[in-house]
Amino acid sequence: MSLGENLQFLRKQQNMTQEQLAEVLNVSRQSVSKWESDGSFPETDKIIQICDMFHCSMDTLLRGSMEEVSVEDTARYDSHMNHFSIIMAIGIGLLIFGIAAQGLVAGIGVQEGIADMMVLIFAAVAIFLIVTGGIEHSIFCEKYPRMKQFYSESEIERFHHKFPFLVGGGVTFIIIAVVINTGLEEVALPAGFTEDLYDGIFMAMVAVAVGTLVYAGIQNSKYDIKAYNRENKREKSATSKKIGKWCAVIMLSATILFIISIGVEIAGVNIKMDSWWKVINWRHSIMAWSWVVFPIGGILCGIVSIILSKEDDTES
């Protein structure tokens, strides 16, 4: 493809008219028209400006095929987002499952030290997956800050039919876990088993449910290309930096609280919830509920993002 064909493809991909592109580049519409028909060649500074605007390399713009590159980029985006959603779902699921493993192992009478070790092993693997997945996603967003809307209406609609079942299934599974755990409290334990087993079963079900909700959320965002482009564009703004810092502080605080809860549990300090929880006769340790800090952290990040984004829109 020639420069003119590539420029025309890029302009149409962003739904821009020749007048709009000319205004951004501070040239006349006739100049853009001549460039696209290969009647004339833009100056070097304009070529650099075009490359910056459309996030492409000069070599591809002048001698390559932007259409072929675009197809490759969209395939990479879909593959990356699928991988990212699975990694984050597994990572957060394992983080919670570590508590489940501790309860399950302790519940069948295994030595307490081994049970506590299970938490640390699962937490280490989970944090590794979450951190590496987050870094990979940041690198991808920097390399591909803009995407065209390449998903068809039928693909989006198909997922939107699936999405409520994923979210509803995750929430329902948590409710079922609560009901089962409450019922198990009334069941006599076999000899050698402890009530930690009930906590382990409950947390294992919660881990599956939360992992499903995380997967559903990231998959849902995958189809919102406009939001992806908007967020990457906003990365250069002061508002985006504020959002990033606040969310980093919130999630770091959540992780610290989670680690503290592990330390408290390993130290053997248990807090029994015997006040109004006594109505349903639950007896859980601090760590059994420590997983809650992560969904709460995610909700707080969402609230901060909405508030700061609205402030940014108002100021602009």
Structure description:
- With 316 residues, the protein is mostly helical.
- It is 76% helix and 0% strand.
- The protein has twelve helices and no strands.
- It has helices spanning 3-13, 18-25, 29-36, 44-54, 58-63, 66-107, 112-143, 153-184, 196-222, 225-234, 238-266, 293-315.
- Helix 6 packs antiparallel against helix 7, helix 8 packs antiparallel against helix 9 and helix 11 packs antiparallel against helix 12.
- The longest helix has 42 residues, at 66-107.
- It is elongated and about 90 Å long.
- The two termini are 39 Å apart.
- 23% of the residues are buried.
- Residues 269-284 have low confidence and may be disordered.
SSE layout and pairing:
Elements: H1 3-13, H2 18-25, H3 29-36, H4 44-54, H5 58-63, H6 66-107, H7 112-143, H8 153-184, H9 196-222, H10 225-234, H11 238-266, H12 293-315
Helix pairs in contact: 2-3, 6-7, 6-9, 8-9, 11-12
Provide the descriptors you would attach to this structure in a database record.
mainly alpha, elongated
What's the quick description here?
The protein has twelve helices and no strands. The longest helix has 42 residues, at 66-107.
Shape verdict: elongated
On the 0 to 100 scale, the average pLDDT is 77
DSSP helical segment count: 12
CA radius of gyration is: 26 Å
Largest sheet: none
Q: How much β-strand is present in the residues?
A: under 5%
